[in-house]
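pinging the channel bc i need a second pair of eyes. not urgent but kinda urgent?? the chain im working w is below, pasted from the shared doc
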Amino acid sequence: MKLYSFPVLFLLAAILAAGTYLADDFFSFLEKNKTNENTVNSNLTTGPHFGVYSTVWFARSKKFNDLIRIADETEINTIIIDVKDSGVYVDDYIKNLVDKLHEKNIYTIARIVVFQDSSQTEEYPEWYFKKSNGKLWQDYRGWYWLNPAEQETWDYNLEIAKKSIDADFDEINFDYIRYPAFAKDEDVIFPPEGKIIIKNRVINDFAHYLTSELKKYNPEIILSIDLFAYTMLNNSDLGVGQIFLELYDYFDYVSPMIYPSHYLPWNFGFENPAEHPYEVILGTIEKGKIQLWEKSSAEVGTSTPALVNPVFEKRLKKLRPWLQDFNIGAIYDGDMIHKEKQAVYDAGLTSGWLLWNPRNVYTKGALDK
């Protein structure tokens, strides 16, 4: 999940982009610029992945050409595209788009928003959280949330992930695998009467079910999860069911959203953490590495580095964070984003990073040629 929303500006931008540009223009661009390769470079499937995010509406517009150019001219080799939020967007257009991106040797990731989903409220209201008066509960932004404890919501998301695999995406990325952040004393029935719900246990069971079923469906598919960065700083579930170490081993990649703008004042000793991206990102990763080391040490049954290191390094290769390319808390120009990237490298991560901007406009000066 991305921890902020741009509901009005984002919606207007999406509508304008979708209405202004024709899909034919985009595919004409690709036909003129495609490489001689017929399939994605196999090296991309093993990383490192340097990616940029696209909404589905941006992906359907001529402006998507900008992301193609960035991939042509810079280190970017990966594009993440929304295929499901409160709608499902896996259609012929998206399938053709994936094929065209593969022709350009671009690694493709399908992003699925899992439990924040308003699309089934009419047909399956029993899947949702409810208030004491029986009406469906909404968060402060007006979103409805599927209840992770309902098995039907698991199968619903599983089938969408299978459709994304059939569309030939290289990787399926899952966001919002969590409970809502209920406010204290909020009017929501949780847990349902007569049930004892342990949030992190439900989320872990879902992650196990989802990944095991998808690996049966396609053993080669790569699966990833987005997590709150704060899960790397402590061992609690933050009230939403996400525990870093418990979810880590289910997925091929784990992508904590390390956005310095979303840290609290005085985190890592900075009044405004957003102004210190290198220190915040490096510090967060190092905290996560301590957790991974301790987990690996416990698994091996010793703290002897020579024995723990192989297990630890294998786990560390899964860590591929989201970084900030948007101006909240500070101006994120090329220098600031370079600092973010350098923190990832200095922390010893080798699987790459993903850039998030809700408007899908990226700081090209921050990217290496």
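so Confidence is low (pLDDT under 50) at residues 1-40. and The CA atoms of residues 239 and 335 lie 35 Å apart. — does that match what u expected or am i reading it wrong
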